[in-house]
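Lecture 7 notes: from sequence to structure.

We start with a single chain of 143 residues. Read the sequence below before looking at the structure.
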Amino acid sequence: MKRTLVYCLSACALSLALQAGAADQDARNKVEFPDRMKTHFLGNMREHLQALSEIQAALAKGQLDKAGEIAEARIGMSSMVAHDAAHMAPYMPKGMQDIGGAMHHAASRFAMITSEGDLPKALDALSQVTAQCVACHMNYRVN
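Now the structure, written as tokens:
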């Protein structure tokens, strides 16, 4: 029992050390926001993720119109005022701004495409939204 505990603690310590080393080697561009804006910005990102989850659930039920409504209201161009995009943009590098704008535009295109009732076409359009999410998260990190 004692040996097992030592092994477990050693494994945990090694895991933490590896994670700390990986964080030190994170080559993504650091983006600095004032503390209150950082909290708001990260909340927006979690909201986008929640919206994507709800969109996928609606698509799985064949509710393309509902998926489009969620997309436009919560991550499309219509959502930018609610997310205070104009106040956040000055703190973002140009490349991050471009990716964010492309994501919002892609979400609005997805919303329009859902009205056609073509699930494969809608899924392709949704992949353009998530591709922008991936691009941003691969290139930038908020400190």
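The first strand starts at residue 29 and ends at 31. Keep this in mind for problem set 3.
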